[in-house]
Amino acid sequence: MTEQKSLLNRALPGLLIAGSLGGVATIMAGLLAFITPVDDGSDGAVPMAQSGQGGETIGMYNVANAFVLPSVGPGGPNKPLAPAVLSAPPPAPAGAVVAPIKPTAKKAKPTRIRIPKIQVNAPIGGVTVDSKGELQAPPTSKPNLTGWYRFSPVPGEKGPAIINGHVTTKSGAAVFRRLKELAKGDFIYVYRSDGKVTRFTVSGIEQVKKSAFPTKRVYGNVTNSQLRLITCGGMVGANGHYDDNVIVYAALSKKKG
């Protein structure tokens, strides 16, 4: 992790931000290798979902480096929750997709996420990188709060919107504790400050080693509106951090408002 932080710190001054008409920024794919993977540590210096002290693990499978799928799997009962090869693209949408929402001069923000299958109905706050270039998560004092990466697209607009959340905190289970249960075809609803409601359909899910985080697949530019949900998973190591990340991929399938 130290090496990745160092690379990111050196790369940050040169990061190029590609925006749409409304100024929605996405990270250029050519520099994605420098983005720090999501972590779930017990101190403030660790990026993304923190803690790892709650005793809960994610995933029905202990992902081994030798067990890699050719593409992101669909998830669901009796399906391996395993990583895809790094060169694999994001999974294809599960069904028909709709055109992205056009950004306006006044940028909207996501305010709430609802995932009926796993009983998530949670507010969304904003997260960014800190002075060390580490992608942050909501405070552990608010285990039901999710975090939208402010320099990713607004959910519903073109590109991959990124939302993270804790699986556990020191006080116990947190908002994304059941994220591993999602499967292809499940619905995710994101509500926005401009009154628009977006529905995303899950296209795939994987569990990956943090040392082999699929940065380009998660953050790379896409031609439609997509969503990534990220939390931690696997086993808690001796350092108090989870070994893996659980990543859900979804595409915009409905919009209203």
UniProtKB/TrEMBL annotation:
Entries under InterPro entries matching the protein: Sortase (IPR005754), Sortase_dom-sf (IPR023365), Sortase_F (IPR042001)
Transmembrane regions: 12-35
Keywords per UniProt: Hydrolase, Membrane, Transmembrane, Transmembrane helix
Transmembrane helix found in the keyword field: yes
Pfam families given in the database record: Sortase (PF04203)
NCBIfam families in the cross-refs: class_F_sortase
Protein name listed in UniProt: Class F sortase
Organism listed in the record: Nonomuraea recticatena
